[in-house]
Structures are given as C-alpha cells and as structure tokens.
C-alpha cells in the first residue's frame, strides 16, 4: 500500500520532457563554487535558450569532483533560483559511496527537487545487472517520493551493462523508476529500450547532443546535454521542425549543431572547454574547472569564438559583456 502511495506521489508531476541543460558549476577564480551567478544563469537558460529543465551536479557540473557539502549547497541554490521559473530540477546524486549517495538523495527530497539521477559506481564496479540494481535500489529508497532516473554513461563509468537488460523488471525493484538518461551512441540499445518499455511511460532522455535527431527518430522523449546551455535555442528549433514533420529543416539544424561540435571536438572538447564556451556565449563568468581539469587554452577560446560567430551562435549583442576567460 505504502509502495503505491509513494510511487503515485512520484508521478504527480508531468513527465520530464524536452531539453534539459546539464548545468555547469560556476567557480570563482580561486576555484570555489560561485553560487552568486546561479540566479542569472537560470534567467539566461529560460530567457535566451528556451530551456526549462536542468540536470545539476552531473558530468558537466563536475559533480564527482565536488565535496558532498558543495553538492548540497549547489542543489539548494538551483532549486531556490529555479522556483516558478524552471519546470524541473533533477539532481544527480551518484557517488562511489552508497551512504553519500543516499544522503544526497534524501537532501534532494528535502529541498524540493523534482527528481534524482544516479550513475553506476565506477571504482569498485557492479559486475552485472543484479549488483547495479541492488545499488540503485538502495539510493532510490532514500528518496521514496522522488522520480528516479538511471544515468547511463559507459564511456566514463566503464560500466557497460546494456540499458535494455537493466530495464527488464526494474519497476518491481525500484518503484520510483521513471526513466533513463542515455549518454551513449548505441542506438540499438536505446531503440530497444523505447520499443520494449514505452508503454510504461518512462522518460527516454538522450545524451549525445550531436546525434539527437537520430535518437528522436528512435523515440527519445527528451534530451539532457551540456551544449543545451548555449545551443538550446538552436536545438529547440530542431525539435520544433521534427515535431511538425519537417525533417529536412530538422536535419539542417542538426548539421549546423554538428559543425560546431565537430569543430571543437577536433580541438579537444570536454568539461573545461564547455565552461569556456558558456562564458563566451552567455557573458556569465563560469570560472575555471577544478583539478584535474585545466582551463581551456586561449587558442581554443579564440577559435571557438570565431566558429560560433560564423555559424551565427554568437551575435555582436551577446558579446557586449565580454567576460572572456584567458589561460593563465
Ligand atoms: C561525455 C559528456 O559530457 N556527454 C554530455 C552528456 O552526457 C554531452 O552533452 C556531450 O557533452 C555533447 O554531446 C558533446 O559531445
Ligand atoms: C551531459 C550530462 O548530462 C551531464 O553533464 O551529466
């Protein structure tokens, strides 16, 4: 009985859908988290990018490089500043320690987040589906009223258990399970998740921004990604074109996004570079990344800026604040 009550509570809010920006964690020049720009950041996402959902403390947010107390402070600030502005705030609570993950899950519930997500523990790893489900179940149980999402990112965790296999029977083990954030290029696995489990109304959130159109064709119900911080508007145009079945425009938008991502990938693209690009495009200072990551180079920033301009992602007006970061 309690089970049904709790899982129906978890489904009150409408499904997570559309674009979800994986938030960057702003830092000061001294490498401390910088909560002071989060209000501005929310307004920027909603007003300039048309993005109304966020995924906090994930890969892009350097979540695993932060202390537990920093993660709590950030989660709280995002929830507070997002109130009445954002549709949903999902907090990534994955950690190597089950205890820490549970504490973060409970905290997310206390502050009124809309959902939690968890990656597979990646140092001492689950050997198989059973191990992974057992871990995820214990985390989810610490926040029994919150929608729970599994965050699949095998290239970073090294845990390659197929999601299609994981979803088989998952709601019996994890009653709050609501979907998956799928950050991998295996469209066979992704497609089979949709094919076999869509009647359960799960959220199938794709996480490879440069390939989103292919995932939409496979049935993605939304997308979580780093580039929606600054290419959200363009990606929304692609979603709208797809929605009205104008595949040729949707493809033009996807190719335009690919031209940018392909360009930066060739220069070396990661969390640091993403931080620098967001500073450039939004004018909000994201600051440096935390070690072991190093700041993006001046050369990278200059080249990315020229490319953004040539593709029309950066207008003269956007540059007026010019918070350009340089390498030290
Ligand atoms: C590894 C990684 O950070 N993946 C992000 C989300 O999962 C994506 O948003 C990528 O940053 C993006 O697709 C560019 O490759
Ligand atoms: C991209 C993404 O979802 C993350 O940064 O966690």
Automatic annotation (TrEMBL):
Q: Where is it localised?
A: Cytoplasm
- What is this enzyme's catalytic activity, as reactions? aceneuramate = aldehydo-N-acetyl-D-mannosamine + pyruvate
Could you describe the subunit structure of this protein? Homotetramer.
Q: What is its EC number?
A: 4.1.3.3
Pathway annotation from the record: Amino-sugar metabolism; N-acetylneuraminate degradation
Q: Which InterPro entries match?
A: Aldolase_TIM, DapA-like
The top EC class, named as a word, is: lyase
UniProt KW Cytoplasm keyword: yes
Q: Which UniProt keywords apply?
A: Carbohydrate metabolism, Cytoplasm, Lyase, Schiff base
Protein name per Swiss-Prot or TrEMBL = N-acetylneuraminate lyase
Q: Give yes or no: UniProt keyword Cytoplasm.
A: yes
């Amino acid at each position: 009985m309690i089970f049904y009550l709790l899982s129906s509570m978890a489904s009150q809010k409408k499904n997570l859908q559309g674009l979800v920006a994986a938030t960057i964690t702003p830092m000061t020049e001294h490498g401390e988290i910088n909560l002071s720009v989060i209000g501005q950041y929310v307004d920027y996402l909603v007003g300039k990018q048309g993005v109304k959902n966020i995924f906090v403390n994930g890969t892009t947010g350097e979540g695993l490089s932060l202390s537990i107390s920093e993660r709590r402070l950030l989660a709280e600030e995002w929830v507070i500043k997002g109130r009445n502005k954002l549709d949903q705030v999902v907090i990534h609570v994955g950690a190597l320690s089950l205890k820490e993950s549970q504490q973060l899950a409970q905290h997310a519930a206390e502050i009124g987040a809309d959902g939690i997500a968890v990656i597979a523990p990646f140092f001492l790893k689950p050997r198989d589906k059973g191990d992974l489900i057992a871990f995820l179940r214990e985390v989810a149980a610490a926040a029994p009223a919150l929608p729970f999402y599994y965050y699949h990112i095998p290239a970073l965790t090294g845990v390659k258990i197929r999601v299609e296999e994981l979803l088989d029977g998952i709601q019996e083990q994890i009653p709050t399970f609501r979907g998956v954030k799928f950050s991998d290029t295996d469209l066979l696995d992704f497609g089979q998740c949709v094919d076999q489990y869509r009647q359960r109304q799960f959220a199938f959130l794709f996480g490879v921004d440069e390939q989103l159109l292919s995932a939409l064709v496979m049935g993605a119900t939304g997308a979580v990604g780093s580039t929606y911080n600054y290419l959200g508007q363009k990606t929304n145009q692609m979603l709208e074109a797809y929605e009205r079945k104008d595949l040729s425009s949707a493809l033009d938008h996807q190719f335009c996004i690919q031209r940018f991502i392909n360009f930066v990938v060739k220069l070396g693209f990661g969390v640091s570079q993403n931080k620098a690009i967001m500073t450039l495009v939004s004018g909000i200072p994201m600051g440096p990344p935390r070690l072991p990551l190093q700041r993006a180079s001046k050369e990278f920033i200059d080249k990315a800026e020229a490319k953004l301009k040539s593709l029309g992602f950066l207008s003269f007006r956007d540059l007026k604040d010019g918070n350009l970061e340089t390498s030290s």
